[in-house]
Amino acid sequence: MHLYDDLQDNMNQLTNVLIVGVGGQGVLLASELLCDVAFLSGLDVKKSEVHGMAQRGGVVSSHVRFGKKVYSPLIAAGEADLMLSFEQAEAKRWIHYVKTDGWAVINIRKLVPPVAFLKEMNYPENPVEDVRKRHEHVLAVSATEMAQALGNVRTANILLLGVVSRFVELKKENWEQAIRERVPKGTESVNLKAFHTGRSLQL
Amino acid sequence: MAAQFMKRILSGNEAVARGCYEAGLHVATAYPGTPSTEILENISQYSEIYSEWSPNEKVAFEVAMGATFEGARALVAMKHVGLNVAADPFMSVSLVGAPGGLVVVSADDPGMHSSQNEQDNRTYAKFAGYPCLEPADSQEAKDFIADALKISVEYDVPVLYRMTTRVCHSKGIVNCQERKEYPVIGFQRDPKKFVVLPAHARVRHQWSTERLDKIRRFAENTSLNRIEPGDPKIGIITHGVTYQYVKEIVPGTSILKLGMTYPLPFNKIRKFFEQVERLFVIEELEPFIEEQVKAAGIECEGKKYWTNLGEMSPDVVMEGLIRAEVISKQKTVVKAEPVIPRPPVFCPGCPHRGVYYVLSKLKTVICTDIGCYTLGVLPPLNAGDTCVEMGASIGVAAGMTKARKIGKGIVATIGDSTFIHSGMTGLLNAVNNRSAITIIIMDNRITAMTGGQYHPGTGKQLNGSETRKVDLAKICKALGAERIKVIDPYDLKQTESVLKEEISLDELSVVITNRPCALYPPENRKQVCEIPFRVNHDLCIGCHACLRVSCPAISESDRLTEKNKTKSQIDTALCTGCSVCAQVCPVGAIQRIENR
Description:
The complex is a heterodimer. Chain A contains seven helices and six strands; from the N terminus they run E-H-E-E-E-H-E-H-E-H-H-H-H. By secondary structure, chain A is α/β, with parallel strands linked by helices. In chain A, helix 1 (27-40) crosses helix 6 (172-182) and helix 4 crosses helix 5. Chain A is globular, with a radius of gyration of 16 Å. By secondary structure, chain B is an alpha/beta fold. The longest helix of chain B has 24 residues, at 198-221. Chain B has four domains: 2-221, Rossmann fold (3-Layer(aba) Sandwich), CATH 3.40.50.970; 225-323, Rossmann fold; 352-526, Thiamin diphosphate (ThDP)-binding fold, Pyr/PP domains (Rossmann fold, 3-Layer(aba) Sandwich); 529-595, Alpha-Beta Plaits (2-Layer Sandwich), CATH 3.30.70. Classes of the chains: A alpha/beta, B alpha/beta. The interface between A and B is large, with 52 and 55 residues.
């Protein structure tokens, strides 16, 4: 694996990124930001998710696609180059969207839904291991702890996008610009720090 | 540089708003409804356009209708089922026309992401004799507004602007332009046109039939419908977002993309048919295009391979093409594994929780309505027995009561915005016919489910400016209700004793809850928040009573009791301190943080 600091020539191909998590985790902000980076890179970009229940602890998934020309706003199952999951069980729910040679980046975070106590269905014992059994390329990241260490737990999402930036061919400057423009005023530097921490993670 | 500046990433709904701005729109109205809500929210940011939330879709339609009668360029937006509410003016204005221009946005919800049905509203265009435009992405969602207004003015006809959830909520890059101004012509008095007396209407029906013939000729030549020549082996007629999936799955094939799906350009379709060996119609939901193409004697295949249920996707398009033996199976996709569901629940601090917790214990029939509180139906609360459409709760409760003869004890639960939308006439009827039902108005002072929109009970207009705030208790009183109680839904004891008493009565009773939404508007959130609670693990006995109030802030912890039951824990970052869980804890283990 190597860092893509320069745009390569193969931009005719589409990049499909699926971002998943639980309502309230910031999935939509992360996908907005990724869209911005693709846009700033001069690419065509589309993004799709369903609103409505997002803030109420429901399942949230956002499809981001970019390249020379994008038609469908949705990624077909088995076509995602990369999945970023903010939560362990959600990674298991969506892993079938990832290409055989695609990557799953998973935040080591468990959010057990309130209905779990009804025992109709259990929260998986070890979702990351379940994903590993099905899929070769899995990267589990303790983003929440790392963000805490940086002094702002809310930067975990940006840190994860830093990890994502290793896998997609978009310029570092465009990432930095998009982060500066999207994050709350006053948190630019800590978010950029989080981004670089994720980007320089030993893989 | 300037060109770059005018390129933006917009959702379909934002693009419609931008299109309205550019096309010189004057007036826009709506009642919120997913997936259409953001259209008006975005239009309201353009000071050049007058915009309002109306109390329901029928009124919204009528206000837009008045504007077009005045010669203004008008738009009304609603979700698909909203058009059922507005169907009366929608159908009848066909005979009048839309002199200033009128665009009726119907945001359909294939797949029912947040709706009670998935009706295909293109049918309404045919029903009323209106042209139907269907944008396929954000760029078209913006551009087609200008086309729709042009058609509307030129043919004196309302235009049905049919969007779907996927177009409304997907984002893409849009080229924006400057606004073009148009004058408001002013009302031209003409009773034979604007007053549809039977004698006038008969003449107008003839006129509207001739109008549709003219639009048919337009459909043949408009660039809204375009043939994309390609491999002649198969030809695909498609529309809306389905076009994007087709382009993705079979690039290079011959496509007839219909931007205007009613009336259909049959000559163009015939020409396309002759160019290809096998003709398919791939469309989302009903075989609206397919049936008409077949009726015109043109051979085609469609719903034979693609279901009329649910939302289209690249996978659905591909599977149909495999069944039709157009493409061979290319990949084996691993199936999804079942993972514990995350049904939406009431937010922490939601005022509905206390009421539904009490109702779940009262063992009575609950006719509920459309809004956040419909979630009370889901486990573990399981409170709610019927829910059909906006405002139905009161009428249904009344009907059940009458059919039972000894009717009492049936409860109707309805939100403030839904009550104003279409619950008031139900109450009036229940009063008039002496229905002994208990109506609970869950007044959280906002239209919450759609993301926090103002309504006449909030005292604010769409643009945030202050206005007269109507008092729900006074409305109920004016409608003839004599027993009206106001309760605090955070107080379980009071809520339970009041509801028990009201349900036992032989007369109609209205109970109004008095706590605001914990989420909207965001500026209120701080007021809602009190000191959060925590679980004292020395006291917790692992009975899970607190989990039964269904709060996202409460979960099982890793700590076990002596009997190996999990103790509960509270996420203090989520807890708003509403105290409902503390009230149900039998051992007082849930305590405010200050007690630590």
